[in-house]
Write a structure and sequence with these properties.
The chain is 28% helix and 14% strand. The protein is an alpha+beta fold. The relative contact order is 0.10. Residues 252-270 have a biased composition (Low complexity).
Length: 449
């Protein structure tokens, strides 16, 4: 443990949290074979990244990068209401690189990383309780500083590009590729000139680029909310979880061929019970010709998206959608949508669920659409149009989409009859009161295979 602490502390005191192995050995007085064994230990996989010299750099030096990341909640200063927030709650003026420390003597936010029960639970769940508080605090400062950690520029993938251009201190590389979620066939995942400039700035130009990108992957993996939840709450059911939007990078699609069948009259299907936190920004990356916004903050407005990754479960959903639509589809994403407030709202409803279906015109609509269910009736400016069957929703989406990738939400109506909204032609229903409904499924798929 002491050697791990010493190595973390040593790297935190370097310019970029990176140092040559020769220097580390000399400073810490340890053997090289022991150092390599230490950083490759499964307990510390995400703590460090070995950066080998590239093949054409015979004279290059091996380096070690610190990839242990302690990211802080971006909503804490705005009074984060998520009781199970998986990120540290610390005063932003005490950790961000533009501030040396908070000078507000009456600051209402925590400065001591181990003061609150919330932060201690996260540190314990991460297995970092052996690290001194002083080093933990410096880790949070390093994690918040793009120069001392591995940050990817999320503006780079937009059509307008990054406004800072060559002055940006983050890597200009496909964010979605690093979380294994890029579905753009034309997206270039090679090392571009901007990447080379970044490597030169961080003195990584002589290192293997694959190793450097792996360092980014490790940091991004730790910034997913479920990175903590998988350790801290492995046996809890979805009904006991506090709900957050997750940025998991995992997604599985199946290649099972579907048979073309006639549309059925079913409105629901038995969904699989195995669940895992999954990605919100995956949905955006599924539409290859759309300008992608930055990844959504880690939690927002009491919404949780849970994914299905079992092959049989994916096949069940694919079969159901193929039957409903009337032609084979390939499922890209399947999400279960949960909300703590909505669960409380419908907990006393004993009637059989009534399902309608809502298509989106483009992936960017997903943000606004999910938030609609949490609005007040008085503040709701635009009604929600839902359809009585998957086929009707699919046909409506087909008129608006420019390609064959669709996204449809299943809507759970709490009541039957006209109380839900106004009936419209073509099996449509116009909802104006969010209290009458909740979203409970989201499917992104390709049809006309």
């Amino acid at each position: 443990m002491d050697n791990v602490i010493n190595l973390i502390n040593h790297l935190l005191n370097t310019k970029y949290s990176i140092d040559r192995i020769d220097t580390i050995i000399d400073q810490l007085q340890i053997r090289k074979d022991y150092l390599l064994q230490l950083i490759n230990d499964s307990s510390y996989t995400d703590y460090f990244q070995l950066l080998q010299p590239s093949n054409n750099r015979n004279q290059g030096s091996e380096k070690i990068a610190l990839t242990l990341d302690l990211f802080c909640c971006t909503h804490y200063a705005q009074h984060c209401k998520n009781e199970s927030c998986p990120f540290l709650h610390l005063c932003p003026y005490n950790i961000r690189p533009m501030h040396t420390k908070c000078t507000n003597k009456t600051c209402p936010y925590d400065h001591d990383i181990l003061k609150s029960i919330h932060n201690r639970k996260i540190i314990d769940a991460r297995g970092l309780s052996f690290v001194p508080a002083r080093i933990l605090h410096e880790l949070t400062r390093a994690s918040a500083d793009p120069r001392r950690s591995f940050w990817v520029c999320t503006d780079h993938g937009k059509k307008s590009g990054c406004s800072k251009k060559s002055n940006c201190d983050k890597l200009h590389y496909c964010y979605y590729a690093l979380i294994d979620a890029c579905t753009k066939p034309h997206c270039q995942h090679g090392i571009n000139e901007a990447c080379l400039a970044y490597f030169r700035q961080k003195e990584l130009i002589e290192q293997d680029y694959g190793d450097v990108l792996d360092a980014f992957r490790k940091v991004l993996r730790q910034r997913k909310p479920d990175y903590v939840n998988k350790v801290n709450m492995p046996n809890q059911s979805p009904s006991t979880l506090k709900f957050i939007i997750s940025n998991d990078n995992q997604r599985k699609s199946t290649t099972t061929q579907q048979r073309c069948t006639s549309s059925s009259s079913k409105r629901s299907t038995s969904m699989a019970s195995g669940r895992e936190l999954s990605s919100y920004d995956d949905v955006l990356s599924s539409k290859s010709d759309t300008s992608l916004p930055s990844p959504l903050p880690e939690h927002d407005q009491d919404i949780l998206l849970l994914g299905y990754y079992d092959k049989n479960e994916y096949e069940d959903v694919e079969r159901y959608l193929s039957d409903e639509i009337g032609c084979p589809i390939k499922l890209l994403i399947s999400k279960n949508i949960l909300s703590e407030n909505k669960e409380k709202q419908c907990s006393n409803i004993r009637a059989k669920p009534i399902y309608y279906y809502c298509p989106t015109k483009n992936p960017a609509d997903i943000f606004q659409l999910l938030r609609w269910q949490n609005e007040d009736k008085e503040s709701t400016t635009k009604p929600l149009i839902v359809y009585a069957s998957v086929r009707d929703a699919h046909d409506a989406a087909e008129q608006n989409f420019e390609n064959n990738q669709f996204c449809i939400f299943r809507v759970h109506l709490f009541h039957s009859g006209i109380i839900n909204g106004n009936l419209l032609p073509e099996n449509r229903l116009q909802l104006s009161d969010p209290l009458t409904m909740c979203f409970d499924r989201m499917w992104v798929y390709i049809y006309n295979l």
